[in-house]
Structure to design on (128 residues):
């Protein structure tokens, strides 16, 4: 390993220690392996405005981890982060030893949980 790669690996380790979740995430791989992994979890709220009015809210959780730590992870594998269950929807490219993984809420193969019920003045209760 050349000097630059060694320095980059050390910097990545510091970033992970500084920003990672306190409790490791658990990857449930298809071979039955349950692997604890240190991840940097993000659950962004991204609002996109529409030119003529309105907005679209996107909420796609993701995490980044060292590529070597997530070897064997595949699309639709289950991930547990902070006692919340997710499944993998996309595994990004290896970016110098770190990979970003996009998630969806809930167990793989199950439909998204129903929207909460909210009262409506006109129609009574309705789905959000």
């Amino acid at each position: 390993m050349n000097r630059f790669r060694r320095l980059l690996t050390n910097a990545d380790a510091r970033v992970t220690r500084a920003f990672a979740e306190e409790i490791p995430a658990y990857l449930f791989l298809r071979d039955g392996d349950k692997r604890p992994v240190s991840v940097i979890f993000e659950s962004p709220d991204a609002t996109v405005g529409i030119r003529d009015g309105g907005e679209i809210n996107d909420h796609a959780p993701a995490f980044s981890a060292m590529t070597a730590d997530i070897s064997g992870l595949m699309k639709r594998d289950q991930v547990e982060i902070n006692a919340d269950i997710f499944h993998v929807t996309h595994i990004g490219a290896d970016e110098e030893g770190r990979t970003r993984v996009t998630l969806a809420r809930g167990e793989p193969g199950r439909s998204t949980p129903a929207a909460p019920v909210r009262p409506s003045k006109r129609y009574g209760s309705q789905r959000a």
Notes: The chain has a mean pLDDT of 82. The chain is about 15% helix and 40% strand. The first strand starts at residue 25 and ends at 28.
